[in-house]
Amino acid sequence: MSSRCHLVYALAPSGVSAREANDLLNEYVADESRGLAVWHDHFVGEHGGAVVLDTRDEQEEARLADSGPLEGWQLSIHPLTFSLSAVGFSAQTSFTLEQYRGVSL
Hints:
Blueprint: E1 4-11, H1 18-30, E2 36-42, E3 48-55, H2 58-63, E4 74-79, H3 86-101
Antiparallel strand pairs: 1-3, 1-4, 2-3
């Protein structure tokens, strides 16, 4: 298997505080067994966040199915089309800014 980036969209269940949601998402991001965390951010107004992970082998990709510290959260995991690696995610970011907003990095 080759490298591939995945977008993980994570929403905490009701009753989880913003602080706890941030800590749990950060714990998820820090777990290197799910691949290389390329980017992440937390949501404003809803507790949760999004993560882009570069899975470099079958074991890392399989770990995406294990919610770990996000047990009970609503998780949605999507492989990305053009971001086949961390470098590809960066290139896609630059391409989008240049092509759709005329901004060069």
